[in-house]
Design brief:
Order of helices and strands: HEEEHEEH
Strand order of the largest sheet: 1-2-3-5-4
Strand content: 15-25%
Largest sheet: 5 strands, antiparallel
Number of strands: 5
Bound molecules: guanosine-5'-monophosphate, zinc ion
Distance between the termini: 33 Å
Helix content: 25-40%
Number of helices: 3
Radius of gyration: 17 Å
Structural class: alpha+beta
Length: 139
Amino acid sequence: MRESNCIFCRIIEGEIPSNTVYEDDLFRVILDVNPASKGHALILPKEHYANLYEIDDEVAGAAMKLAKKLAKHMTEKLNCDGFNILQNNGEIAGQTVFHFHIHLIPRYKEGKNADILKWTHETFTPEEMREICDTLRLK
Ligand code: 5GP
Ligand code: ZN
């Protein structure tokens, strides 16, 4: 399924140009137009899924397998020092394009973006932590 008003669907269709580093039947992998670091890329499923809640299980599995392969390949080619895999769901989580995608972000010890992806911490009492854990326990 394609969505005509979705920028990533239009990139996948070739209506909007992109720097494509990999393509197969299920995915297109492009360089992010506004990269957080050198080589920042996005894995786009060719089918339109808005987010992780909607994506097909098989496609989700294949996407993570591809992320692993690309992380290894990109680390070798770019000689980066580390790697982040990031996937945002919902506006509050930083999602700006509502077509599921996985960010592949090479990390470098040197450079102005050495500090990206840091967050502050919240504190919970041991009792609160137990309640949270009880709520989340998956049976
Ligand atoms: P999100 O914030 O939704 O997790 O990530 C969306 C990403 O898509 C952003 O990092 C943004 O720079 C990138 N992006 C948005 N529009 C385009 C585009 O037209 N082409 C490419 N290559 N990347 C885009
Ligand atoms: Zn789309």
